[in-house]
Amino acid sequence: MTPELTILALAGLMHIAQFGVASYMANVDLGPGYTTSPRDRAPSREMRKTTARMLRAYDNHTAMFGLFAAGCLLVSLTGQSSGWTTALAALYLIARLAYIPAYAFGWQPWRSYIWLAALAACALLFLAALV
After folding, report:
1. Which SUPFAM superfamilies does the UniProt record give (predicted)?
2. How would you label 85-121 residue by residue, b for 16+ Cβ within 10 Å and e otherwise?
3. Cα distance between residue 67 and residue 123, in whole Å
């Protein structure tokens, strides 16, 4: 397995952990009566600001994870794996790990810069696969 695919697996585990933490926080805030329901109605209680941010950070990673996975797969399948592409994959994972508290605690403007670093890593993985 290439280093990029190993980092992809770690990013997948991070994604699952992020979902677990955000879901737990939502369950605490909204109660299991609501979170286990079909959610046909609005919740009777509000979530804490941090919980809502954790859920948005998770949704944001859901949107970006496919790009990262595609970049890692392209680099690995085309035999373009290198120290550079491994560093890009590691940058993505580190940025996404940093993005969680950055979003949860409202670190402005750093959250946006961290997000941009992860996106740039994905774009550069695609470019590396084309070389």
Report:
1. MAPEG domain-like
2. bbebbebbbebbbbbbebbbeeeeeebeebbebbeeb
3. 8
SS3 77: helix
Q: Residues 114-126: pLDDT tens digits? A: 999 999 999 999 9
The verdict on pTM exceeding 0.90 is yes
Q: Check if the beta carbon of residue 75 is closer than 8 Å to that of residue 125.
A: yes
Question: Which domains, ranges and CATH numbers included, belong to the chain?
Answer: 3-37+47-130 (1.20.120.550)
Spatial distance between the Cα atoms of 82 and 88, rounded to a whole number of angstroms? 10
User: Per residue in 20-43, pLDDT tens?
Assistant: 999 999 999 998 888 888 878 888
Peptide bond connecting 109 to the previous residue in cis, omega within 30 degrees of 0: yes
